[in-house]
Write a structure and sequence with these properties.
Blueprint: H1 2-30, H2 34-110, E1 115-126, E2 131-135, E3 148-150, E4 156-163, E5 168-172, E6 179-184, E7 190-196, E8 201-211, E9 221-224, E10 235-244, E11 250-257, E12 266-272
Antiparallel strand pairs: 1-2, 1-12, 2-5, 3-4, 3-12, 4-5, 6-7, 6-9, 7-8, 8-11, 9-10, 10-11
Length: about 300
């Protein structure tokens, strides 16, 4: 054991002598001192580690800087996309409005007696029995109660039932309490049209008091019969079904409303028109349930 220990010491001494000789030779060649060479040798791994850490830090900093730049660029692009989408939505809205106004002008060209006020819908109201919408025009725009509201295509929306300075409420054709005298345009049969809530048809209209012998076909168009409230010939809806009343002495028809009430953006109020309704009462035509003007045209 002592011999082995002595051998290890001898080896260490030999290595030390060789290293010292190598340092001396290198110092002579490089004109550097042996301690300096030794320190430099010891510092080389440290410098390597430091350089590696520096490069890693630089890469990380570059990544973070690039990430922030990309994030800012992404936010700018997202804002630009949102702006472009907003512009596209506005363009679509303007396009739809222009289309409605062109059709309104065509309607006025066909019915020169119509004075129309356009308005936008700002609110909706609906219960099991009622269906209303609120518009952004009121008495300051010439709107008053018992005026008819239509689409740009001459389709009946409903009747103005409440008016403020800058708003008005319209009871729509889907409301079960609103009745309109209508005529099946093909056959000329007359009846009263109202919302079908009471019969479970919340999106259909019901035309009552049709003769039991009436021939009613699907897709027959129903228009207003004409009164001091509703001009003649406005489109109410089209027939989708028919049947007999419980008494069996009269028929009824179910109608698909011509106006898509839940998809409306803009409405047109007929503030004045010349009626062609006869002053003689008709025995076969039920009277309107809504108040009417005493004279025409509507003031």
């Amino acid at each position: 054991m002592r011999h082995l220990f002595s051998t290890k010491i001898a080896i260490i001494l030999v290595l030390a002598i060789v290293l010292a000789a190598a340092l001396g030779v290198y110092a002579g060649v490089s004109n550097q001192s042996a301690p300096g060479i030794l320190v430099q040798g010891l510092m080389t791994p440290v410098r390597a580690v430091g350089n590696a850490l520096t490069r890693t830090a630089e890469k990380y900093y570059s990544y973070m800087f690039r990430y922030e730049a990309l994030s800012a660029e992404n936010e700018a692009l997202q804002a630009k996309i949102a702006q472009m989408e907003d512009v596209a939505r506005q363009a679509d809205s303007v396009s739809r409005e222009n289309d409605r106004l062109r059709k309104m002008l065509d309607l006025q060209a066909t019915h020169e007696s119509y004075d129309l006020v356009d308005a936008y819908i700002i609110g909706w109201g609906s219960t099991d029995w009622n269906s209303t919408l609120t518009i952004n025009r009121g008495s300051t725009a010439g709107i008053k109660e018992n005026l008819c509201a239509i689409t740009e295509n001459g389709q009946v929306i409903g009747l103005v039932t409440e008016v403020g300075l800058n708003y008005a409420v319209i009871k729509t054709v889907l409301d079960s309490t609103l009745e309109i005298s209508g005529t099946i345009s093909v056959s000329g049969y007359n009846g009263m049209v109202k919302g079908g809530y009471i019969d479970g048809h919340d999106r259909l209209l019901k035309m009552n008091y049709l003769p039991s012998a009436a021939i009613i076909r699907n897709n027959d168009q129903v228009v207003t019969s004409g009164s001091t409230v509703y001009p003649r010939g406005l489109i109410i809806g089209s027939v989708v079904d028919a049947g007999f009343e419980e008494t069996g002495v009269a028929k009824f028809a179910l109608l698909e409303p011509a106006a898509e009430i839940n998809a409306l953006e803009q409405v047109f109020i007929i503030t004045n028109y010349t009626t062609e309704v006869s002053t003689q009462p008709s025995e076969t035509q039920p009277s309107e349930t809504q108040p009417t003007e005493a004279t025409t045209p509507i003031e």
